[in-house]
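Case study 2.
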Amino acid sequence: MSRERAARFALFLGLWLILAGGLSGLVFGLLAAGLATWASVRLMPGPMRLGDPLALLQLIGRSAAQTMLAGTDIARRAFDPRLPLQPGLVTHPTTLPEGLPRDGFTALASLAPGALPAGTDEGTVVVHALDTRLPVARDLAATEALYVRAG
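Prediction:
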């Protein structure tokens, strides 16, 4: 196995272990990592291009924190009898080109508390927010900045 494929396999296996919360399902994790490695080599041949490693770690930490915040925020709102919501659309201007770079960013944006990307339109990402009083636009800008540095 080449170093490139080994690095991809390790990346996918690490992601599996994070999502699984440990060694549970390791056999399936090895299988999933193998299939993901094969697919990534076929779909994106050549060396992986990594940007700033510190930004990548910050992006991973931010994404994990936003996932936890999103889960607790949604649960809190679901059990609150007043259901404090002010839904609406928030637009975020982006310089990311269409395709994989923008798709990756919108996937990360879906981890923000109460936010769900609803589409893109000529240099703008449109996000449906459960509460437009939250700093959704500021969070999207911070996530995109880290995403660009990490990429």
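The chain has two domains: 3-43, 53-150.
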